[in-house]
Amino acid sequence: MLKGKKLLKFPQKSHHSFPNGLGSLVAGFDAHGDGGEDENGVVYRELESGEELETFQPFGLGSHGDVDDHQNEGTSYVKSDAGFSEIRAPPKHKVDVEAIDADDKRSDLDYELSQKEINLEKLQRIASSGIPDGGGLRATIWKLLLGYLPPSRDMWEKELRENRLKYARLKEEFLVSPLHCRQSEFSRRKDEAAEGIDQQANAHAAEPLERQEISNEDHPLSLGKASVWHKYFEFAEISEQIDRDLERTHPTIKFFSGDSAISRKSKESMKNILLLFAKLNPEIRYVQGMNEVLAPLYYVLSTDHEEKNSANVEADSFSCFVRLISDSVDHFCEQMDNSSVGIRSTLLRLSELLKASDEELWRHLELTNKVNPQFYAFRWITLLLTQEFNFRTILRIWDSLLSNPHGIQDMLLRVCCAMLLCVKTRLLSGDFVDNLKLLQHYPEINIDCILQVAQDITPDTSSFHVSL
User: Fold this and answer.
1) Which residues contact 339 (CB under 8 A, 6 or more apart)?
2) What kind and span of H or E run contains 220?
3) I need a labelling partner for 336 at 20 to 30 A (CA). Which of 9, 172, 244, 287 fits?
4) Residue 113: CA atoms inside 13 Å, Cβ hemisphere, count?
């Protein structure tokens, strides 16, 4: 990772305006991903543009794209003085119950969203147990949970219009090549001359730009750091890295991969978002793995059925991405590693949380087998679990992460701890190699069980807020 230091803070999550200080995050990012590691053989169903996932099933997809609703059925975990233990219960007929529950939940969410002033606490409480698929419901709720939409519905149109205009201006300013800028200037001068606005320019409008009109800063061979061409070539490598990473983003899902019009549009928009983020934040730039964090967000926002929203999914995704990543940006800054907000501190919090929840498992992992959190949880935390589960499950997990009133990181650590508790039996019977392999390739487990265990973990033990 690059060296760096924190510059300024992100806008508070409660602020609903477009982040103005986009160049004010932190310095010091570099590629830290696993270098093209596959997705553990998990096969996903192909998704079309704007297609919502079917009603959520709590298990991974099989080799033919079918939902395996038998694995771990009836498995749950109970907490006692000795820690969490696995129990078995007879299989339940859950399909109809889940359908009714989804309908009731959709009705409750629709009601909350219809209010003139939306009660965010109620919305968080309902959404934390999962947002039903279909109708773009998740897209609207995620925008609210991230603070992109204000609670007052009367302000939605104004806020969205202003934010989208700002994005369009930023995109025009930062994602246009210097050559295009020169051509645009030449075209502008031609138009002015044709209209008689500038008589002096009119005499030269039909001619190419004269050599003396190109300053040193505008010359492609200029080595000066102020040169627009120097900056352009500087980001060419970043652009190529983004292209490579986007080609590896969910390669089995049509929405992201292949050469269809749908996937090309998705990759082009996501590249614009990531490249603009890098240019607006030169001390951070692009970090390998940001593409994985952006993918679920961009997909969900693209499922919005409202025409104005679907037409502006790129602009909305950019602003929501900035807000989402603001919660964990310090994890990528090496100079922040030893601070209370750095990745080492966060990994220590996970270790302490596991110790408080199940000391037996903590001792076995960290004292007996020396399987420290940095060996497996670095990726879990920095990429918000996007590499550990199938796409459907990621969306369900994020419903809980974004809905947590104490912040994304609080719930994220509890989910990570729950993931350890839910494979306790296998971990206790394994050695260093077995446990490391298990945790780096997490097995398919009923996500509802994991999230329930995470909810049952005492929040106080997951919040070790240390003042700088």
Assistant:
1) 330, 345, 468
2) none
3) 244
4) 21
With 0-12 CB in 10 A as exposed, 13-18 as middle and 19+ as buried, what is 338? Answer: exposed
* One-letter amino acid for residue 355 of the chain: K
- CATH dotted code for 334-462: 1.10.472.80
**Residue at token pair 């609670």:** 151
- CA-to-CA distance for 342 and 16, rounded, in angstroms? 26
DSSP 75-140: EEEEEETTEEEEEE------HHHHHHHHHHHHHHHHHHHHSSB--HHHHHHHHTT-PPPSTTHHHH
Note the pLDDT tens digit of each residue in 407-434.
Answer: 999 999 999 999 999 999 999 999 999 9
pLDDT band at 135 (very low <50, low <70, confident <90, very high): confident
Contact residues for 8 (Cβ-Cβ < 8 A; gap 6+): 21, 24, 25
291 contacts 247 by C-beta, under 8 angstroms: no
What separation in angstroms does the CA of 182 have from each of 121, 204, 219, 348? 51, 15, 11, 52
Sole residue written with tokens 């900056």: 231
Does pTM top 0.85 for this prediction? no
